[in-house]
């Protein structure tokens, strides 16, 4: 196999990359693909991009064990098809916690933070099929965690689609939980309050645009180009703020004045619809990351907001019933190839006292920064000519202390994101300063 490693080092674009945007990033990792990257590769991708929280859709033991000792916070998932047995048999819940949680909690083990019970179980399209099993399953899992002595550290939650609440006037203050699930939601919210669990909600501005031809496109983004929505003295310039504050109003109307809210999924697809493309995805993420970097939150939910991007990689075996775009939510393609540069590509390894802080020269630091940019530009040499400041060489600039990110590309379609000093046979291309 013809193997090419492309390594780029560069200079003076570091100022374009804000280190503030790499703090506390979470990401969803789904595995509905014909070819999945190895968990060890996924873990390295997360670490390389300073992503320190991951949300899974199951609890596969072989996958979860790769997060041991990484410091990455893990949210385990329980699929909807397991809710009935966990709801009807407490012993099943105890066994689940034993096999999927406590088994990983040894010294240096997996940093499990949450257990997600179900996935959007009250979605309208499910026609109430999970209404009788979700809350009992939630209670049994929490009871099993408590019995194992870890219920104060690991919290249960339920990832909900934003369709669990609605607003008749399309203003946040008119928000309320759907009438068909309101009693269920009140039970669950009371339980969350008693157990200090967060409310997990999936917010998708793209879906609002996709489902409603009259939805103002610019309202899906964060650059202030949309006509603001006025509501009780508050001006909303984007759908994210308005949607999350609709949830806040819905919570208030059932007596919940304060509860931690986590955005369980947020993202933008890159294929499968005229509005699903790389250009708009990059625009959405750039605006979202800049907003998150301000730590201002929304008008009714100020401060930091925990969030999980959807998703890390494409999944080419997902159902396309929601739309052809459903297989193309990844920031990376299914093989690990980045689709576009995003602001969590960073230079924090250059900061004191990080591993690359002592490269020894300004040129070396600049080379490291150029390489990070090049990788997220999909290794496009034309995008990285830097007005003649760089050249391609055949030398790996990594040191024992500082690893320059590499991209390994086969003659086929798979591209593996690697970091390390081990070099396979083949051509190594390095863009460095003259």
Automatic annotation (TrEMBL):
Keyword field: Disulfide bond, Glycosidase, Hydrolase, Signal
**How is this protein named in the record?**
O-Glycosyl hydrolase family 17 protein
**Residues covered by the X8 domain:** 328-404
Family named by the database record = Belongs to the glycosyl hydrolase 17 family.
Molecular function in Gene Ontology: hydrolase activity, acting on glycosyl bonds
Q: What is the lineage of its organism?
A: Eukaryota, Viridiplantae, Streptophyta, Embryophyta, Tracheophyta
Out of the domains of life, which is the source? Eukaryota
Look up the signal peptide feature and give its range. 1-24
Q: Which Gene3D superfamilies does the record cross-reference, listed alphabetically?
A: Glycosidases
